[in-house]
Structures are given as structure tokens and as C-alpha cells.
Design brief:
The complex is a heterodimer of chains A (113) and B (112). Chain A has 113 residues and is mainly β. Chain A contains no helices and 11 strands. In chain A, strands 2, 4, 5, 6, 9, 10 and 11 form a 7-stranded mixed sheet that branches. In chain A, strand 5 (43-50) and strand 6 form a beta hairpin. In chain B, strands 2, 4, 5, 9, 10 and 11 form a 6-stranded mixed sheet that branches. In chain B, a hairpin with a 2-residue loop joins strand 6 (56-59) and strand 7. Chain B is globular, with a radius of gyration of 13 Å. Chain B starts with a strand and ends with a strand. The chains are: A mainly beta (113), B mainly beta (112).
């Protein structure tokens, strides 16, 4: 069964460093998302991406964040200058249509020291 | 934007008993309501969903009910088993217009 895959599974970085989290959505999916989950809290929407552009973003997704789909398979989240409060599990998700089941990756745990 | 409230935050039940988790949403235009199960350290996975043109949906031991007028929906798990222990998230969206917004989650513990 096709799955969303994410790398790295865990990244530790120093405050102020840039981080890139990578995702490979399910191949025929057209809508891509990043969510984050601070330990023990709810899953929070960051950004959605469709047709090679951001379709919606939350207040969390400020100028420090960016997303890219550099080729036909990868979907990346970049955090330009990490802060302590960026420590969280980041989930990539995709779906074929703009509604219906969202398929999540296993997540990338980011720890900012 | 949409706001989803979920209760209770934790729930313990004896194996074989039923569990009910409730959510309310704020945006009357929301029309898609999924429930996700997240086991410890794993990704959230869809267990059941319902659209606003339906009042109830059932899949074996799991059912979801929707009250559009009151803007609330509930997850019902019958004959609970230890493997049902997980965190359950409700979510809501206005399909194609707003992203999926999640509730804070309910940690369900099924005691054998």
C-alpha cells in the first residue's frame, strides 16, 4: 500500500540553524500539507500546497517557514532560523482531492537546543 | 476560522464497555468530519469519517453521529478492546475551502 514517507525521522539542531524536512507524498496525490504536533498536544495545520503554490497557511507559518516541491516527488518544509518553540513532530500529509482522507507520513521529530 | 473542541481529554474504560468522544465545531460551513487514531509514536490514521449530508455512519464497532444544527459530532466505540487504546482526534473542514482543523485529542485507555 502506498505511503507518505518522511526524512529525517529525528533531527536535533541548534537554535538559529536552518532545517529542511523532506517528504515524498503518495505518487498520484495532488494536495500536500504540513502539520505539526508539539508533544502531547493537538495536530496543528501549517500549510497546504496545490498546483505548485501555497493554497493556505496558518498564523504559525510565518516568514521563517517555506515550502517547496523541487521536483515531481519531493515536498519540503524549510525553517530558516529555528527557535526553541519549533521543537515538535512535523507531519507531512497528502491526498488526491481537496477533501477526504488525509494520509500522514510517520513524522519528523525536530528538537531545537 | 474553524475551531474544534473535543471532550474528554482522557477516558478510561473497562474492556468490553463503550467509549464516547464528543466534538463541537464553530464553522457552520464545515461539511467533512473525520476521526483519526494515533498510537504512541505513530502517525494519525483515519478510522471513520462522515459528511454533512449524513447523520450517522457505522463501521463494525465504530460509529460516528453528526448533529449539524448543534454543530457537534461524536465517536462511539463499542465492545472496546485493549488495542483500542490510543489518542483519538476529531477534525472538521469545509471541503476544498479550508484545511482540516483538529481537536486537541482524547487519550483512551482500555483496561483489561
Amino acid at each position: 500500500e502506498p505511503e507518505v514517507t518522511q526524512t529525517p525521522s529525528h533531527q536535533v539542531t541548534q537554535m538559529g540553524q536552518e532545517v529542511i524536512l523532506r517528504c515524498v507524498p503518495i505518487s498520484n496525490h495532488l494536495y500536500f500539507y504540513w502539520y505539526r504536533q508539539i508533544l502531547g498536544q493537538k495536530v496543528e495545520f501549517l500549510v497546504s500546497f496545490y498546483n505548485n503554490e501555497i493554497s493556505e497557511k496558518s498564523e504559525i507559518f510565518d516568514d521563517q517557514f517555506s515550502v517547496e516541491r523541487p521536483d515531481g516527488s519531493n515536498f519540503t518544509l524549510k525553517i530558516r532560523s529555528t527557535k526553541l518553540e519549533d521543537s515538535a513532530m512535523y507531519f507531512c500529509a497528502s491526498r488526491y482531492r481537496g477533501t477526504g482522507e488525509l494520509f500522514f507520513g510517520e513524522g519528523s521529530r525536530l528538537t531545537v537546543l | 476560522g474553524e475551531n474544534v473542541e473535543q471532550h474528554p481529554s482522557t477516558l478510561s474504560v473497562q474492556e468490553g464497555d463503550s467509549a464516547v468522544i464528543k466534538c463541537t465545531y464553530s464553522d457552520s460551513a464545515s461539511n467533512y468530519f473525520p476521526w483519526y487514531k494515533q498510537e504512541l509514536g505513530k502517525r494519525p490514521q483515519l478510522i471513520i469519517d462522515i459528511r454533512s449530508n449524513v447523520g450517522e455512519k457505522k463501521d463494525q464497532r465504530i460509529a460516528v453521529t453528526l448533529n449539524k444544527t448543534a454543530k457537534h459530532f461524536s465517536l462511539h466505540i463499542t465492545e472496546t478492546q485493549p488495542e483500542d487504546s490510543a489518542v483519538y482526534f476529531c477534525a472538521a473542514e469545509n471541503s476544498g475551502n479550508t484545511p482540516l482543523v483538529f481537536g486537541k485529542g482524547t487519550r483512551l485507555s482500555v483496561i483489561a
